[in-house]
Amino acid sequence: MKQELVPALMDIDARIAVKDGHVEKKPHGHGDVHALLHQHGLPAKWAKEGREWLLLFQDTNPLPFRSLCAILGVSVSRGFAMNSVAVPRLPGEAVGGICQLSYGADVNPDQVYQQQEQFIRKGASGDDLTINVEYNQLDPLLKDTPAGGDVADASGFSPYPGNINVLVFHVGTMAQRLATTGGIVPEFVNPKWADAEKSKFKSPTRLECMMQDFPRLCTKARCGKTWMWKVHALAVNPACHSVWL
To answer: Which CATH number fits domain 5-227: 1.10.287.3610, 3.30.460.10, 3.60.10.10, 3.90.550.10?
Structure first.
């Protein structure tokens, strides 16, 4: 399997960037793993073979296998379609935070853990998501809520633990959701702006997608997180539901 590049965008009107007479192309993001798995029929094949669970991880983190047995056990006992390993995260830290998003619900950091446990028992619905929110979006999202921003709780950490892209999927559910959606994960753009008005790009940007956005392909299926320590160490230079272990 090989990921294809996508055309780069030169401005807010999404005009295609051209360099030296050729369309400029960039990677589409690791969310393409879902489309590639579906295109090659692998989740459906694995489900027919009786395989139940799939682990996805990034090779910049050498420690994910420390968590594998525990996160598999949690995934089975909770009936999760996707389970994310999460780590303690400081407020404002440049790591995505895993949150329970409930439309129309206020966010109260003093009640977040209780809400997450209630959500586990209730199960996910089409209006609720346990999902990663990127750090540059998390604080602005929370500023308009009673939380007032991404602030520490009594532990000194953010109530929204860090996503490290160690993800366990239930193969049967994954195959069904990818068959329904074609494995197409919702896309976004994250341009570097050249002006305060955010009207010009510093350089061409790209449409991209992320593998941890799989919960956005799910309705009714339960997606959660397992909070763990000492399962994350970068091998490169760095530039909701809750179960404690």
So the answer is: 3.90.550.10
